[in-house]
Amino acid sequence: MCARHPDVETELSCGRCGTPICPHCLVYTPAGTRCPDCAAIGRPKMYVFGAMDYARAVPTAIVVGSIVGIASAFLLSPGSRISLFPILIALAIGYGVGVAVSEALNLTTGRKRGREIQLVAGGTMILAWLTRIALFMLAGAGPEIAFRDISGLLMVVIAASVASSRLR
């Protein structure tokens, strides 16, 4: 008889603990059929993002975002015109930055994956863009630079998408 449904006769049992289970109770797992208690595995550890992971990832994001923002201000000038060469440079820098951000977050969080670390990577790129804009404004550009910085925005979008896809 099934352990959970005493009125149901069964010849099935949990592949782990041996508890008799009926077809209504059994759970298919990669290791075979299990009872609901043994099948409650949970998420893999690489997808569980706790408070200590945030405590390591957020300072990393702040440092990396600031460095990327400062470096991109020197490497990629703000351009309001759309031409091929600045776009190619922005794409290349964006790809490199995305790889660097994802690796920095991988190192500090023990290779965590999932939505939480992807959001931290996106926040890193927003901080980089804001740092970049702040530097241009300190150098004498007006606030409209935020709307004219097409190459910087392209770099940030590419970097965020590359980092996000690597941290999936």
How far apart lie the N and C ends? 44 Å
Give the domain tally.
Answer: 2
> How many DSSP E strands?
2
**Fraction in beta strands:** under 5%
Largest sheet: 2 strands, antiparallel
Shape: elongated
Order of helices and strands: EEHHHHHH
Low-confidence region ranges: none
> Reading side by side through the largest sheet, how are the strands ordered?
1-2
Q: What's the mean pLDDT score?
A: 89
Which percent range fits the helix content? 55-70%
Which radius of gyration do the C-alpha atoms yield? 25 Å
Supply the helix-strand structural class: mainly alpha
Distinct helical segment count: 6
Write the layout of secondary structure elements.
Blueprint (H helix, E strand, L loop, with lengths): L26 E3 L2 E3 L1 H4 L11 H25 L8 H26 L5 H24 L6 H4 L1 H17 L2
Antiparallel strand pairs: 1-2
Helix pairs in contact: 2-3, 2-4, 3-6, 4-6
Describe this protein's structure:
The chain is mainly alpha-helical. It has two domains: 1-41, no CATH class; 45-166, no CATH class. The chain is 60% helix and 4% strand. The protein has a two-stranded antiparallel ribbon with strand order 1-2. Helix 2 (51-75) packs antiparallel against helix 3 and helix 2 (51-75) runs parallel beside helix 4. The longest helix has 26 residues, at 84-109. The radius of gyration is 25 Å and the shape is elongated. The two termini are 44 Å apart. 30% of the residues are buried.
List keywords for this structure.
2 strands; elongated; single chain; 168 residues; mainly alpha; 4% strand; two-stranded antiparallel ribbon
